Structure formats: C-alpha cells, structure tokens
Amino acid sequence: MLDVEREEASGTVFRDAILLSLLGLMLIIMILLQYFNPPTQEAQSEPPGNVIVEIEWPNHLDADIDLWVQAPKDRSVGYSNKGNAVLNLLRDDVGARQDISNINHEITYSRGVLAGEYIVNLHYYADHTGQRGRAKVPVHAWVSVKKNSMATPRIIVDRTLTMERVGDEKTVFRFKLSEEGNLVSGSINERFKAIRAWKG
Predict the structure, then answer these.
(1) Continuous segment of H or E residues that includes residue 12
(2) CA 104, 182, 175 angle in degrees (round to 5)?
(3) Helix, strand and coil in the chain, % to nearest 5
(4) 87 Cβ partners below 8 Å, 6+ apart?
C-alpha cells in the first residue's frame, strides 16, 4: 500500500513539474516574441516627403537617366550630391546594372515645403542598350505635394519627354510653390537652366 502511495505521489510531482516547466517556457516565448517583431516608430515620427519628385522610364531600356532637383535658394540634388538642407535623392537608378527590381525609377523628396521656385532636370548619363549613346528614352516625370504628414500627396505637375543622346541635360519643368504648399498660378515653364553638379 505504501509503494502505491509513493508511486502516485511521485507521478503527481512529475506531472506538476512538467506542467510548471511548460508554463514557464510559454511565458518566456511570449516575452521574447515582442523582440522578434518590434513596433515601428513610423507612426510617432513625421515621415519625409512633402515635395516628391519622381521619374520613370521603360523597364526594358538599360539606360541611366539621372534626376536633378533644385529647391529655392539651395544646391541641386542628384547622383553626385544626394542631399542638402531641403532635398534628398532617395534612389539613384543606373539602369539594369546592380538592380534586382528591374524597375527604372528615381525619387527625390523634401523635408517640409519651402516657398519659391523648384527646377527639375534630367541628365542622360549612360546608354547600355548597345545603340552607342543614341537610344531614345521616354521619361515620365511628376511632382507631388503633401502639405503635412497626414495629407494625401497630390500631383501638381506631370510631363513625359524624350532623352535622345548621352550627355543631354533637359529641364522638365520649373514651378513655384507658396508657403502653404500650393502651386503658384502661371509659374510652370520649361525654360532650360543647367543644374547638374559634380563633387568638387
């Protein structure tokens, strides 16, 4: 009789020990789960991108088209000067080289809206199509403005032009924004101004 009681007692202790071990393991796993997928900080900080300039060209064309943007009273931003006080070049696309996405797209954005004239240029940097620098590349360019982090971006200017030979620089558009981030009426034009720069 005493042996049966001992076996029952040791079985109960064993089951209790296993159950407590499993509960402890589950508690540790629940604590660690929050570190595998930490909450993002994006909701707490204002994302960049009040003035957003984008270009794209056909994905099948292995050409390097560079986006250059100049904000009011600031240096231009492009592949050799990727950022300054107002603007940042987020993506410098060099065509099919070093590109796993197969998407020809460049984007520049501002932090805040600075009133004054913006200039958007394209530079035909390289042609890898085998056409000796003469592949004609249609480039679609557009500018969106987002007045604050909660607003939906709205396109204010949109144009497609053709880059014809390596070395060409063209002004896609110039436009003015008010302090409120509104397009100044009658300010859009395409008068050429060279803004491309190199590191000195």
Answers:
(1) helix 2-36
(2) 55
(3) 20, 35, 45
(4) 51, 69, 71, 74, 77, 108, 109, 110
Q: Is 189 exposed, middle or buried (0-12, 13-18, 19+ CB in 10 A)?
A: exposed
Query: What's the CA gap between 129 and 1, in Å, rounded?
Result: 92
Whole-number average pLDDT of the chain:
84
- The model's pLDDT over 101-154, given as tens digits with 9 standing for 90+, comes to 788 999 999 988 999 999 999 999 998 888 877 889 999 999 999 988 788 899
Tokens of 71: 């904000």
| pLDDT > 80? residue 90 | yes
SS3 of 173, please?
Answer: strand
Output the six-digit token pair for 103: 């998407």
Opening angle at CA 59, ends 95 and 158, nearest 5: 100
The number of CA neighbours under 13 Å toward the Cβ of 6 is: 3
Cα 193 from chain centroid (whole Å):
26
**Structure-model confidence comparison of residues 24 and 176, the more confident one:** 176
pLDDT tens digit string along 63-78? 999 999 999 989 999 9
How far apart CA 137 and CA 65 sit, in angstroms, is: 9
Q: Determine the length of the chain.
A: 200
